[in-house]
Prior knowledge:
Distance between the termini: 35 Å
Number of helices: 13
Helix content: 25-40%
Shape: globular
Structural class: alpha/beta
Bound molecules: iron/sulfur cluster
Order of helices and strands: HHEEEHEEHEHHHEHEHEEHHHEEH
Largest sheet: 8 strands, mixed
Strand order of the largest sheet: 6-7-8-3-9-10-12-11
Amino acid sequence: MTDEKDTTVQAAQTVTYDDAAEEAKYLERRQRQIAEDQGKPIDPEAILEVRHLRKCFPLKKTLTGKVTQELIAVDDVSFKLKPGETLGIVGESGCGKTTMGRAILKLHKPSGGRIIFDGRDITDLTSSQMRQIRRQMQIIFQDPYSSLPPRSTVGGILSEPVLVHKIVPRDQVKDYVLELMDKCGLRDYYYERYPHEFSGGQRQRICIARALSVNPKLVVCDEPVSALDVSIQAQIINLLKRLQQSMNLTYIFISHDLSVVKFISDRIGVMYLGSMVEFGNKQDIFSHPLHPYTQALFSAIPQPDPDIKMNRIVLKGDIPSPANPPKGCRFHTRCPYATEICRHVTPEYREYEPEHFAACHLLERE
Ligand code: SF4
């Protein structure tokens, strides 16, 4: 009698998962969600709406061109952004932050999902249709040394986009550029100088001025200060903030420096292995991060007060290859709370608090 009881208890405790079936269930759930979201009306308050964005790169192809292996760099990323806001994107190197930023600007063609910018679905627009939109979506690159043409003067670099997009009449271009240079903290006599004559910080100011020369609404800042000295970083961040206020710019600020992201962002998205694992307002994410990865990431932020004890959560192992991501929750190979379900079933990305989203089985149980 006792043996029979024990077997029943054991059977109740042992849950086995069929990975293929779980994957099929997850894909079905996701397709349903995508179909539901595609039918939703465009949010008139959002300048940018990203719905289930996906970007894959082929790794192997057959002779007929059929893709047999691909790298999923961005997988099912969704969020909304209002005009004038800054979204900070954080995560370790290789988590898909930059690819996501470029896919939003359509510098990489998205493999799936929708991008709605300023009330218009731009996902399937052709390059010529994108020309006008492109003016309103700009990017600032990480490396100010390689992103400026060495044979053009600062005046030439800044005048070109103004002329191409006919921002002001031709005879007013120089005055317009000089005013822009002044706004970005560049002296007027730099107009005739070449990029190699400037320091990293000044070059980044030129890059910022070039991005803003066409009056954009959205700017993707891809690690704009990580190649600069710490003292210069603060100046560039303050400049970006000032320009945001005066020009009502919306930023997507990609960085691995959490202190910088904390300072500049209104909302924060945390990415791991191509997926958004948590998204929310800065206050919510910093005061009570929901996802174990966010908790580990934020526990590493240095505290300026030596009396505050840091409870650092050290993650074991390296980030797995996006070409061969783990099954189930992608973070399970490094998560200190991983259980059996995490190894087999992909957690759903859900809104657990108002405007605070995360994907973790621990939260589903609470
Ligand atoms: Fe960790 Fe599991 Fe949550 Fe993934 S789903 S973060 S492995 S507890």
